[in-house]
Amino acid sequence: MMPTLTDGDRVLVRRRRLDQVGRGDVVVLEPPLDPSGRYMPGPSGPDGRRWNIKRVAALPGDPVPAGITAGAGVALVPSGAMVVLGDNPAASVDSRQRGFFPADQMLGVALRRLGGSAL
Known about the structure:
Elements: E1 11-14, E2 26-29, E3 52-58, E4 81-85, H1 95-98, E5 101-102, E6 106-113
Antiparallel strand pairs: 1-6, 2-3, 2-6, 3-4, 4-5
């Protein structure tokens, strides 16, 4: 998420349901499993889970943005899924590589960097 966030930044997260999330929100979510093993998430956090922080690009019912790996012929983001992108496309593993992220693996919306400004 650089330049918005850097490694080690701590963020305040408010739990939200999918219907409370908007395009452009920064969300904290677990990455989908990658059976090929090409896209390994970083180390686990203190709770044993792996978290990604990404910006929402499309929500259920929205057109699938260009460049997103999705099922053949899928024109709209399916129910219960979202398209997320990192702010640094050169270094981000996001929906461009992984496809749709399951909304049920979302913790919530990151509101601000602790000690910093709103996101």
